[in-house]
Design goal:
DUF1058; SH3 type barrels; SH3b domain-containing protein; elongated; about 150 residues; signal
């Protein structure tokens, strides 16, 4: 019976895709769970530092240890989270003062689609030449990269 439990534990550990373990750090990720505990160390025995309740929130992965990731959040806090609660999606959060223009094309003169308040979280794609494509709640457009935490090189 004990060997069956050990076999099951090994199989579960191997179920994590190899690409997730081999990814070069640092890299961007986002929270895929409704609740995520950030811990003081890489294990469930370490105390919880923060509890995140915001799926999609971007995080920078700065270190990998087995099934755990050392991450940095938009406020600069660091801690360990389980890898299976992170998404490979490149998320971003609007930062800065006032509304951020979301435009139809990557240009300040392009048509304004809507404005996003600081704190809005979206999925980023194609960050280049000072602009990022951002998708929020079924809408997409372009935002200046300096208005999004998560837009730069990790």
């Amino acid at each position: 019976m004990r060997s069956l439990a050990v076999t099951a534990a090994v199989a579960a550990a191997l179920a994590v895709p190899a690409a997730a373990q081999e990814r070069e750090v640092p890299y961007w990720a986002s929270i895929k769970a409704e609740t995520l505990n950030m811990r003081a160390g890489p294990g469930r025995d370490f105390p919880v530092r923060w509890v995140y309740k915001r799926a999609g929130l971007p995080l920078k992965v700065v270190r990998v240890h087995e099934g755990w990731r050392l991450v940095r959040d938009p406020a600069g806090d660091e801690g360990w989270v389980t890898a299976n609660l992170l998404s490979k999606d490149h998320g971003g959060i609007v930062v800065g003062e006032g509304l951020a223009a979301i435009r139809a094309k990557p240009s300040d003169s392009a048509q304004l689609r809507w404005n996003a308040e600081p704190g809005v979280v979206g999925k980023l794609d194609n960050c280049a030449k000072g602009w990022c494509e951002i998708a929020v709640g079924g809408r997409s457009g372009f935002i200046r990269a300096d208005r999004v935490w998560g837009s730069g090189t990790p």
